[in-house]
Amino acid sequence: MNLLKKNSIVVIALLIIAFPFIHVSGAESADLSARELAPLFLSDVMGLDLTKYNIAKEGYGSDYPVYYGGEVKEEAVSFDLVSDQGNLSVMGIFRNGFISALNLYKGRNSTVYLKVPSTNAVNESRNMLQRYKTFAQDLGWNTTHIDQASTMLNNVSAAPSKDNLHMFNNIIGFIPTDAYEGNMKLETKENRVNWIYTEKGANITSKRISIDFGFDTLSFTDTWNLYKVGSLGVITEEEAKTIGWEAAKKYNLTFTYENGTTVAMTPKWSNVSEISFSMIPGQMYKMNQDNFVDPGSVTREPLVLYPQWKMIFYFEMIGGAAGIQVGVWGDTKEIAYISLYGYLGALGVSDTATSPEPQPENTPTNSPESLVDNSPVPTPPPTTEASPETTQRENPYEIGISNPSTNVFLASGAIATTVVAVAVALAVLKRRKK
What we know:
The chain is of the alpha+beta class.
């Protein structure tokens, strides 16, 4: 064998040996699946020494869900990390190659690290962000928000001592803090830190980074690069409420009694209503072919967040329902949905929104607040009630993830995303190898 052939064989052999240790470049990252990204994240960002673990009970599933318009590849992965020091459980959701969420549960077992982690959550969050930036750069992701998030940690202090939240690795948590910088809000609770996208006073929780150390679980979320933010809307809370009320007044209600008798009903409205604002993905509600939420006159992209006002107008007491729920698009002033709210089970109910109903007795029509009957009313449904006066928030664009509704179609964008992730993860777990 000549020298050239010997050298070629040596070079090929070295490449074969070295290949498993070569870090993935941005150009190649698009071909990585969640199966490959999850272990990389565990070692490169969370800092685990995976050479001390075996992967077992691996599960994987992928889909192009209808609620993302069939345009987003959603992957779910789960597996156990097995070692002599105890087993860990991993579950992750990836969308279009981005890590939407990854949870590492350790229980009371030990965790083997490449390097001893910090003993407080502030420093460990900073270390994770630094490693995450390198990880993201290697994958070709935008890291501007990571730099900003790391800088904002300078505004946060660690708690004086450990609490009883079963913190991951018994780490010392955060002192609760709120801070703002540019289009980012930093928010810390005792066990977690969130960096939330903000614009014109709106906290858009669907677009955020989050690190949570609570309850023996280390959780990481980043949807910043996944979503874009559309217009925040052209109408105020009061304008949205007026539009919603006009639609609620025209809603036809037909009640069916147990004996089969049907009767058209004109509800007597209470003085209780609720309203909230959220930014939702353009096709998040497209859960079936009927497309419960009307997108209106514009095309709504699945990965763009759009403004929506959600409201409930309560009845006094009508057997089968508590009120009418209405959604109004904040950018076009169009009705996104309208339906009954809070089925109570006493009567059968059918409903349409095609014909106007007579207005409630003694009810003027100049504003939602005045469109109520002023006679004494029974106590409205508990826990979810809010008078018109209390719906005026200091920041009317503040987004919460607990919008008042019992209808699964009306969960907020954030809640819907979480429910979808859990559903996919459960499907994965069913496919696990025994």
